[in-house]
Write a structure and sequence with these properties.
Blueprint (H helix, E strand, L loop, with lengths): L2 H4 L23 H6 L11 H27 L16 E6 L5 E10 L4 E7 L5 E9 L4 E8 L4 E9 L2 E10 L2 E12 L2 E12 L7 E10 L7
Antiparallel strand pairs: 1-2, 1-10, 2-3, 3-4, 4-5, 5-6, 6-7, 7-8, 8-9, 9-10
Length: 224
């Protein structure tokens, strides 16, 4: 292939911007390549290149700004479903149906508000914690509970008909035991929450109450 055929015709060439020079017309002899006029090397980019560069820079900056604003506006765990358990957040005194103090429970939002961490303790030294999260990928609420006795309880469910209802299963002496815990505000009072824990050893045919606690927000009047 000759030198002349290696250089595309002028009609094929597109002016290069961003500081590059436009190629000269194809030389007619090798002498023009090696010793010809080199005045083309100092040729400035076409005027439209400066305008194009400016437009590209402005559009890039605009896209970056829009992406940054959108990222700031979309916060994780900000959906209504993710906030369905917020009525449980706070410091609580837990009482039995007879009015006795069963323990203290603190519910905090942690990790950018995505997790509800429960810290329960009683006057007798019993303690446990749970971690609660709305799993957006599956559309369910999840709780993992652990305590000082080595108990692991994994529950899942959803907020429905005014109550957070989570269910799971453990292994008892005589086989599987279903677990169901419900939380709901009492008479729509933000300072009162009922927690009802029920178990079933017959696959859900009958249920037995394992714990019935009334949460009274610390700093408010205790129930009569």
């Amino acid at each position: 292939m000759g030198l002349e055929s290696a250089i595309p015709p002028a009609s094929w060439r597109v002016p290069l911007c961003f500081g590059a020079k436009e190629l000269p017309d194809a030389p007619h002899s090798t002498s023009e390549v090696h010793g010809g006029d080199e005045s083309h090397d100092s040729q400035d980019p076409p005027a439209h290149c400066s305008v194009l560069s400016l437009l590209l820079a402005l559009s890039s900056g605009l896209l970056f700004t829009v992406a940054t604003v959108e990222a700031q506006q979309v916060k994780p765990c900000s959906s209504p479903e993710a906030g369905a358990f917020d009525f449980w957040v706070g410091e609580w005194e837990v009482r039995t149906p007879g009015g006795n103090v069963a323990g203290q429970n603190g519910i905090q939002k942690i990790l950018n508000g995505c997790i509800l961490r429960e810290s329960y303790r009683t006057p007798t030294g019993y303690a446990g914690q749970s971690f609660n999260i709305f799993d957006a990928s599956r559309g369910v609420w999840h709780q993992t509970w652990v305590d000082v006795g080595g108990l692991l309880l994994i529950l899942e469910g959803s907020f429905k008909e005014g109550a957070m209802v989570l269910e799971g299963e453990t292994v008892g002496t005589h086989g599987p035991v279903r677990q169901r815990i419900s939380w709901y505000q009492v008479d729509e009072n933000p300072d009162r929450v009922r927690q009802l824990w029920e178990t079933s050893a017959d696959g859900g045919k009958t249920w037995t109450v394992a714990f019935n606690g009334l949460y009274v927000r610390v700093g408010t009047s205790p129930p009569p």
